[in-house]
């Protein structure tokens, strides 16, 4: 197998619009009429599609997306079921990472990325987010000249600190007292 230098990869992001509406119902689901839309208290609504909030929705969406990618020639990673690879002649030409509705696509060939984006847009309603700079709260920073790539959660951590009103807390290297003794017991 040929290993690709990750610094040579192009990164592109996409977002799936109305993610859970793409899953196909496998069972009959009824729900109460929505507040403000009640015509008759004795009636319920029969769902035609999965909705946000149903516990089955994420699983059905994943199954639908997985089926699409496998038919398109992708292979799911044995180590992480949300990582897919497309290979040609023992060479990986595309990587796709999925986290619910966030997609990161990586390849050394931008034409392959454009082809994949087109296929995804034909199958699902997608938003093209362009060059991959931020995913799952992590900033992606690259210096191609030096062959370096970094992931940073500094922005996310700053929001957490502000949320818990700890912005003015004293900064320490280790959140333990200097006299704390650690043991296996």
Distinctive features:
single chain; 185 residues; alpha+beta; Alpha-Beta Plaits; 2 domains; three-stranded antiparallel β-sheet; 11 strands; extended
Order of strands, widest sheet: 4-5-6-7-1-8
Q: How much is the radius of gyration in Å?
A: 22 Å
What's the CATH class label of the largest domain? Alpha Beta
Helical segment count: 3
Shape: extended
Kindly state the number of beta strands: 11
| Distance, first to last CA | 45 Å
Count structural domains: 2
Helix content: 10-25%
What does this structure look like?
With 185 residues, the chain is α+β, with helices and mostly antiparallel strands. The protein folds into 2 domains: 6-131, 2-Layer Sandwich (Alpha-Beta Plaits), CATH 3.30.70; 137-167, no CATH class. 21% of the residues lie in helices and 30% in strands. It has helices at residues 57-71, 110-123, 154-163, and strands at 10-16, 30-32, 44-46, 74-76, 83-88, 91-99, 102-107, 126-131, 134-135, 138-143, 148-152. The protein has a 6-stranded antiparallel beta sheet. Strands 9-10-11 form a 3-stranded antiparallel beta sheet. A hairpin with a 2-residue loop joins β5 and β6. The protein starts with 9 loop residues before the first strand and ends in a 22-residue tail after the last helix. The relative contact order is 0.17.
Compact summary:
The protein has two domains: 126 residues, Alpha-Beta Plaits (2-Layer Sandwich), CATH 3.30.70; 31 residues, no CATH class.
